[in-house]
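Example 3.2
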Amino acid sequence: PNPSASHPSLSLAASSLTSYLRLSRSLTSTSATLGPYGYAYNSGCHPLERVSGLGLLTTPLRSPSLVEGWSPREVAAFETSMSVYGKQFHLVSKAVESKTSRECVCFYYVWKKGGHYKSWKKGFEDLVEDDEEEKGFEDLV
């Protein structure tokens, strides 16, 4: 007896799994059958490799992005030092320790365009507002 026939949810899960495997196979492999020296007999030509998402990420021809060269510890040190020193990149690079001032400047302009900068800036502005409110309260006392 087929267990998926008695349970419709198992049949749905099996078909979903099959379609997922078919899709992942199509993304990671080519369908060309090649002969000697890469010649495809069925089409009579030398086919190019089909581009896939996984292939784009893992190809040795792809140059890594600037952000990929920074560890999470370096990014945290960068953000902390930005809140302390602002755009004084020579001081920021000393705080990060493993990056030069030039690398910090380049990273800043990439980081500033990203979504993480907006959340960092909002949190930083909230801290500044809290400090100003505390100073105002101290003046009243």
